[in-house]
Predict the structure.
Amino acid sequence: MSEEFKIEIVNPEKSFLLKEDVTQVVVPAFEGEMGILKDHISIISFLKPGIVKVYSKSEENNYFLEDGIVEFKDNSLSILTSSIYNVSDLDRNKIEQILKDTEKESGLDNIDDQKRYLIDQKIEVLKSLQLN
């Protein structure tokens, strides 16, 4: 019996990723990292800045996203996000530019606690990517 399911990641520009042979996905949900396997219960959750890990039998791919919504239903996983990058395509300069822009945003005075939390999460993830 197949352990695979479908994933689609969509951002405003296009359908970013469509795969039908996924065995596991780990997403950065607000509640913490959430692993999803075939036949997982139906869920809808908000995503915080972090790494989406997509596993298939032949490979593992990691994607950095800034925010989003995840829905899993009938063995189909959908992620809607405003911004996503394949980690393997992010060079040091791109990471540093995103980090610089995010740190600038964190210095603004009119940020509420939730926004500050998300900015801090984003900075933490970007710094961890710099180390790799």
About this structure: The CA atoms of residues 100 and 123 lie 9 Å apart. Helices lie at 92-106, 113-131. The longest strand covers residues 14-29.
